[in-house]
Design brief:
Blueprint lengths: L1 H18 L11 H4 L5 H5 L10 H14 L3 H27 L2 H12 L5 H5 L4 H23 L2 H15 L8 H11 L11 H17 L10 H16 L3 H4 L6 H19 L3 H16 L9 H16 L4 H44 L7 E5 L19 H9 L6 E4 L16 H4 L5 E7 L2 E4 L1 H7 L1
Parallel strand pairs: 1-2, 1-3
Antiparallel strand pairs: 3-4
């Protein structure tokens, strides 16, 4: 047991050292919006232009801001420590669920460096998923303890933790069916499910308020084609976690790969019935986020836990000396992939720092009521599916952070039609751009913002 504990602590230490490079990162993209709240009342108010209601997540950032100011180091330290805590909780849950300390250590190790975790660890905005996962795992562990001890205090903790998870990110609504499934697996009496009444009521209440107060165009619903692609792709990315290969799979092959994976999993379930719980957990989560989005790395953060349980259960049927090879292959692949993403997000971070300096200088040169046109802002540095985000959202808050001014008269344009790196802004011909009067034009190029030369002369 002491040896197992030592290995776990080494995993946690290695993970902290590996991700500590992100402590030097700056705020990126949506971060400027999420750290902009100055009063708790703003956080708990439902916004008609924002399709999330995540006051627990925003409150955590608000507290850090009040205590330490807008120091990006402290925010990134919070994100890394949150991930370290989740690694520990993954071990606690899977040790009991899989009935094996060895398997739990392997799951924890692979979860620590799972290739898609960069958004949840390098990006402060991604904390909404890791914070949700924290409360998600705590509620599952609490319910897990109830199934062993039958102590009602465990049910009380479960009932409290579910709303905290849900108010960190709405995807935590999957906790309700997941706890029911786990309860069925552990033969929990129906009357004990009354703990779910509060979360269900809270979900319905907030959903009604959101529907009544949110603009319909803000809510994005996936088309059937997008939904289908997201479900298939997400399963493959999670169950065959080798992005270097999966990214290059020809059309038509993903469906075949998905069917083969499902056949293998159902064979496993025949041998170990409890793995049906992992499959249900995985698929419910995938179905939920696929209804509104194509695969996003941060959405894989929670889903990677049941996926890894299935992978480790499959590989455990091979001899131990044979298992070592795929485990090391996955781990090395994860670390290489994350290292590449780290370099991209570091570059993104540097661009945001330079942008802050440029905006601070440029905004001091003209009056607050002047129209400002931002041209060719990139959505991300590298494009999908493994984006390193730049000006995805929150540019107004970025300007406020840089200059202290929350602008009203800013507009976004692009002079290039077909470029997947650019934001989805209106197109304008370059000649027309120079005909805009009484305004300032800021052109993004190679990581920097520039005044149009003609506009500089007009300003003078």
């Amino acid at each position: 047991m002491k040896k197992k504990n030592l290995i776990l602590w080494l995993i946690l230490l290695f993970a902290f050292i590996f991700y500590s490079s992100s402590l030097s990162f700056f705020f990126i993209s949506d971060d400027f919006f999420h750290i902009s709240f100055n009063r708790l009342a703003e956080i708990f108010k439902i916004s008609p232009s924002y399709n999330h209601y995540i006051p627990v997540f925003l409150s955590s950032l608000f507290i850090i801001k009040k205590l330490f100011g807008t120091n990006p180091f402290v925010f990134h330290l919070y994100v890394v420590l949150l991930h370290i805590l989740n690694i520990f909780l993954v071990y606690v849950f899977t040790k009991e669920f899989l009935k094996s300390s060895r398997k739990a250590l392997i799951v924890s190790l692979l979860f620590s460096f799972f290739y898609s975790h960069y958004e949840a660890v390098y990006w402060i905005t991604g904390t909404t998923n890791s914070l949700m996962t924290l409360f998600y795992l705590l509620s599952l562990i609490s319910f897990q303890m109830f199934t062993k001890t039958r102590k009602n205090i465990c049910l009380v903790f479960t009932g409290v933790l579910i709303p905290l998870a849900f108010l960190s990110h709405e995807h935590a609504i999957t906790l309700i069916p997941i706890i029911i499934c786990y309860g069925i697996y552990r033969k929990v009496r129906v009357k004990n499910y009354k703990i779910l009444l509060l979360p269900i009521f809270l979900f319905c209440f907030i959903s009604i308020l959101k529907i009544e107060n949110t603009h319909l165009e803000v809510v994005k619903i996936a088309t059937f084609s997008q939904f289908y692609q997201s479900v298939i792709r997400s399963n493959i990315y999670l169950l065959i976690p080798i992005p270097f290969i999966v990214d290059n799979i020809p059309k038509g092959i993903p469906l075949l790969a998905f069917l083969i994976l499902m056949i293998i999993i159902f064979i496993l379930i025949k041998k170990e019935t409890k793995l049906l719980f992992c499959l249900i957990w995985l698929e419910i989560h995938i179905l939920l986020f696929s209804s509104t989005s194509l695969p996003q790395p941060r959405y894989f953060y929670l889903a990677s836990i049941p996926a890894l349980c299935l992978i480790i259960s499959f590989l455990s049927y091979f001899k131990k000396n044979v298992q070592f090879v795929p485990y090391m292959f996955l781990l090395i692949g994860f670390i290489i992939f994350l290292s590449n993403r780290s370099r991209e997000w570091k570059e993104t971070s540097m661009i945001m720092r330079q942008t802050i300096t440029s905006l601070n200088t440029m905004y001091s040169r003209f009056s607050k009521d002047k129209k400002v046109y931002f041209v060719n802002l990139p959505d991300s540095l590298n494009g999908p599916p493994w984006n390193a985000y730049l000006f995805r959202n929150g540019v107004e808050r970025l300007i406020e952070y840089a200059s202290g001014i929350l602008p009203n008269n800013i507009y976004y344009l692009k002079t290039v039609k077909n470029n997947i790196l650019l934001r989805n802004d209106p197109y304008i011909n370059t000649k027309e751009l120079y005909r805009i009067n009484n305004s300032a034009v800021m052109l993004y190029k190679e990581g920097k913002l520039y005044f149009s030369e003609r506009k500089i002369k007009e300003e003078k």
